[in-house]
Structure formats: C-alpha cells, structure tokens
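User: Okay, second chain of the day. Same drill as before: sequence in, structure tokens out.
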Amino acid sequence: MAAGSTLFDMRLVREFERRMDGLLEGWASRVFSGPLHPTELATRLIRTADLSLNADLECHNHFEIAIPDTGEGAAPHRLIDELERLVEEAAFERGWRMNGPADIDIRTDPSVRKGSVYVTSGLARGQRPAWAVLRREGELASITVNRAVLGREPECDVVVDHDQISRRHAMIWTEAGTVRVADLGSSNGTSIDGTPVGATAAECEYGSVIRLADLNYRLEAI
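Assistant: Same drill. Structure tokens below.
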C-alpha cells in the first residue's frame, strides 16, 4: 500500500470515527471487548477491498463481517450505513471501480471469539447512483461507475453512438479528489477545454468541456 494511499485511508477512518463518535460506545465495548474498535473494522474493510483489486482496478463491493455472538443483537443500522459510505469514499479516493454499490452484512458467528472479527468479500452487481453527467445539446449521459469507459461499444459504461467515436474511446474517473480523463487509443482523439489528452491521465474540472472526436460534452457534478 502506497504512503499516499495510507494517508487517504487515515483521513477517511478519522472522519468515520468522528461521525460515529459516542453512538456505538456501549455496543462496541460489549461485542469487541478488546483492541478491536469500529475504526479498526473500518481499516480492515479498506484493506480487504484493496486486496480484492484486479488488473482493471475493480474492487469487491460486497463484504460479510462475522463478529462474536455476545447476545447484544444485530449491529446498529447506522454502523452499516457508515461503513458502506466509508468503502464508497475509499474507492473514489483511490480511483477504484465498483460495479455495484457498497453492500455490507454484519452477522454474529458463535465460532468467532470475543474481540475478533472476520471480513470476507465478493462481487455483487447493482445499480449505482450517478456521480456526474455529460451534457450535450439536450443529451444527458449519467456517469455511475468510477473508471467509466466512454465509447461506441454497447458494453461501454457510457455509450456514445456516433461514427467518429471509437469503440472504447476514453475513460473518466475520480481519484484523490480530482476528476481525471484518459484517451484509450481512440482514432479521433480526446481533449479537455481544447487541450489534447493522451493515455496519461489529465485532470478535468466540473464545467470543463470534454471533446470526444467532434462531439463536445460539458462535465457537470450531481
């Protein structure tokens, strides 16, 4: 794990801890009863997602967490919601792709001893909300996944059905708080506000015009 990524993770976990401050103290102490705290659970989740990455920087989005059965009942919904939010934030900070929304299931397991936790992960497809849109002359194309591929191919994340557009034309994603665009070897090129973009990622601001071949799209935040 790169040093920069570790700093992002620490910031995200600290923010998670701030949001959860005081809400889980009793439940967490009785369930975990030891060095494991919800913030440690958050760190483990990010690490598990990191280890699931494939060559296309796609990570798992479904996580099953086994905790000891202490008779305290189900995990608070707020904890699950915040952990799912944390995984989403980590994916966008690190530039990872998730093909479905973050989904976390916390269950008790009598085989898990007090103070321990086990995290496993897998893929679960589902509808993701849009994080940006591309607008052109009344057209509106939603960008839902990170590392979204734009092109003419029906399998692309954003399909641009135009003869001048390559089958896989460009990619757009967020990483470290910035939007980035890269050309995927298209025949007719990609540019941002008139500046050509190559295979090396170029930063792009909301409100900028992304030109694919001879088509201009304005990038807008949701």
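DSSP finds four helices and 14 strands in the chain.

User: Thanks, on to the next one.
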